[in-house]
Structure formats: C-alpha cells, structure tokens
Design a protein that fits this description.
This protein is α+β, with helices and mostly antiparallel strands. It is built from four helices and six strands. It is elongated, with a radius of gyration of 19 Å.
Length: 146
C-alpha cells in the first residue's frame, strides 16, 4: 500500500481535501503583470483566501494572466471566491495608478469578466470510476483506508 500523501481537513460533519486551479486573465489580455503588480495581487489573493477560510497554496503570473492553486472547504462557493478575488485585486491594483496598468487598461477594469477553474488533486477520474463500478464485486482490489 502506498503512503497517504493527502492532507485531509475535518469539520464538524465532514472530512475533505479540495483544491481548485484558477486562471484569471487581464482585460483585453494586456501584458501588465510587472513584479509590483504580481506582488500586490499575491498579497490581495492571500487576504481574500484567508477571509474565505481557504489557503492560497501556489500563485504566479505570466504577462497577461495569473494562476492560483487554492485549497478550500466544502462550504465555499467557488464562484463567490473567484468574484471576491477579482474584485478586491482589481480595486487595489487600479488604486495604485501604476503606469504599466494605466497605459494598457482603462475604466477601472483589470480582469476579463471570464475565468477558468479546474478541480484538481486526488486520484485520476478513471480510477475513481472503476472504484465506484467495482463496489459490488466480491474480490475488488481496493484497500479501505482507516
């Protein structure tokens, strides 16, 4: 049996391990991710995640987008988390009046209205499907975790 590498979290009536990979794109895909913009975004994302009782496990930007890996509890609505991440970070970046942002973006908008979110972690889907399908098989090869 392989070692359990999951960091399980518990609540009053729940055990969970949930992660989301979130990708946010700047308005018009403008290249505005300077080091100071990236730092402010990271600080803001960490604060928002803390407010939602989430953890920002990884964060990085490329010229026109940001990637976040967030661990979150089941009570969090991901759409609300993403909207809060975008709203708070956009407000803070636009308040700075930084040239690299003002030259590329206008109207108080920083992020595109769309985003990408992907659930991640755990076993691959094919293994989970097989595990579910094999529940009634008497000789299934899965080991129950204690």
């Amino acid at each position: 049996m392989t070692e359990n590498t999951y960091d399980w979290h518990t609540g009053r009536h729940v055990v969970y391990e949930l992660h989301a990979h979130i990708v946010l794109v700047t308005k018009y895909r403008r290249d505005v991710m300077s080091p100071r913009v990236t730092k402010l975004l990271g600080d803001t994302f960490r604060e928002v995640c803390e407010h939602f009782e989430c953890e920002l496990e990884e964060f990085e930007t490329d010229k026109d987008h940001a990637h976040l890996l967030v661990a979150y509890p089941p009570k969090v609505q991901l759409s609300k988390l993403v909207m809060s991440l975008k709203t708070n970070s956009s407000k803070r970046v636009c308040e700075q009046g930084w040239q690299e942002v003002q030259a590329a973006l206008w109207g108080g908008h920083f992020w595109s209205p769309s985003y990408c979110i992907v659930s991640c972690g755990g076993a691959p889907l094919e293994i989970i499907k097989r595990y579910i399908q094999d529940q009634q098989k008497p000789n299934r090869k899965y080991v129950r975790r204690s």
